[in-house]
């Protein structure tokens, strides 16, 4: 636990051997490469929307996780509602964000995620426009660590059911 605060800030990516002075800049460079090169080539994302997608990531990393309002995100970023849903899925597949869906089996689950978190705490630290909320850091860390080998979902009963067996509350 001695190094945990350092890990939360600068421990996910293997840049430590190069020093930590430019760590967040390196993380931002990776995100830029994913957005500027890979998304347009692999997902045919309009290059004109890359800046808007960066704004979307800034919003997600700065806001305290909440129930997702796609219309509000579309308004804030200037991206059409249907397009933003596709972009969220692309960012999830690129491991930049984590989309959490409710544990109920409803049609709503197919329409939009219930909660959006950054994929890991280092992305959250690097892309946030302010000091990240400690609860947001905890949620991102928890979901990232358990999401590697378990299905993590969003629920109103607690916070996160894992494989629909255990429910955890993160705060």
How are the SSEs ordered, and which strands pair?
Layout: H1 4-10, H2 23-43, H3 50-62, H4 70-77, H5 81-93, E1 97-100, H6 108-111, E2 115-118, H7 121-127, H8 134-147, E3 160-162, E4 166-168
Antiparallel strand pairs: 1-2, 3-4
Helix pairs in contact: 1-7, 2-7, 3-7
Give a verbal description of the structure:
This protein is mainly α. It contains eight helices and four strands. Strands 1-2 form a two-stranded antiparallel ribbon. The protein has a two-stranded antiparallel sheet with strand order 3-4. The two termini are 18 Å apart.
Strand content: 5-15%
Count of strand segments:
4
- Number of helices in the DSSP assignment: 8
Q: What are the secondary-structure elements, in order, as H or E?
A: HHHHHEHEHHEE
**Global morphology:** globular
Brief synopsis:
The chain is mainly alpha-helical and 171 residues long. The chain has helices at residues 4-10, 23-43, 50-62, 70-77, 81-93, 108-111, 121-127, 134-147, and strands at residues 97-100, 115-118, 160-162, 166-168. The longest helix is centred in the N-terminal third of the chain and has 21 residues, at 23-43.
